[in-house]
């Protein structure tokens, strides 16, 4: 298989890729998507107001329309580098679990994050997200349609298997995933409380 880094460098010269890079960069600026922990983590965060119906979580938290939430975004360029070589799925999960304690620390300490009631957002990987403590719900039909197109485009672009990866599992359905502030701090607010879940046949 060609080196993924070389493939990404070649792809960046293509018009579609330049357009998607420009759109991602614009989106980051427009919605103030920021790194966590000073950078170097696969998770980034944006602050938005929750616009959906009221949600009751397993820990008793009630998320209401207008509450401040942290919208989780994956650093796609960093994620692409994790797909090189073997055990890509394990490395990806390890990076997510490495980032969640940092996110918990920031919610605990950063003044602007104190009103955040939950973290999450749309994801094609909603089944896997339950292993980390997220809960999931369907998205409105139109929102699900246009966001799924974008998410599937990104997955096909950045994953070395491209479109073949979309055929695995439940990659055709986009759902919203949320983890409450309380659950995040309880599960990841103490050092050494979280380890990535292993898939079938994987070892650390």
Automatic annotation (TrEMBL):
Start and end residues of each YkoP-like domain: 21-188
Q: Which Pfam families match?
A: YkoP
Question: Which domain of life does the protein's organism represent?
Answer: Bacteria
Q: Which InterPro entries match?
A: YkoP-like_dom
The name this protein carries in UniProt is: YkoP-like domain-containing protein
Q: Which organism is it from?
A: Candidatus Segetimicrobium genomatis
């Amino acid at each position: 298989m060609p080196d993924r880094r070389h493939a990404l460098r070649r792809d960046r010269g293509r018009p579609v890729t330049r357009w998607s890079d420009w759109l991602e960069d614009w989106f980051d600026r427009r919605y103030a998507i920021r790194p966590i922990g000073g950078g170097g983590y696969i998770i980034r965060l944006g602050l938005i107001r929750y616009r959906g119906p009221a949600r009751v979580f397993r820990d008793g938290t009630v998320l209401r329309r207008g509450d401040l939430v942290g919208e989780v975004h994956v650093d796609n360029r960093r994620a692409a580098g994790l797909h090189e070589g073997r055990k890509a799925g394990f490395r990806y999960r390890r990076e997510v679990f490495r980032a969640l304690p940092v996110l918990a620390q920031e919610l605990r300490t950063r003044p602007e994050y104190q009103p955040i009631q939950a973290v999450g957002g749309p994801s094609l990987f909603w089944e896997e997200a339950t292993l980390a403590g997220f809960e999931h719900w369907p998205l409105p039909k139109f929102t699900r349609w246009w966001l799924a197109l974008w998410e599937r485009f990104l997955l096909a672009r950045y994953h070395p298997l491209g479109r073949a990866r979309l055929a695995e599992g439940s990659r055709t359905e986009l759902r919203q995933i949320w983890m409450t502030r309380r659950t995040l701090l309880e599960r990841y607010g103490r050092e050494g409380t979280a380890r990535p879940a292993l898939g079938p046949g994987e070892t650390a």
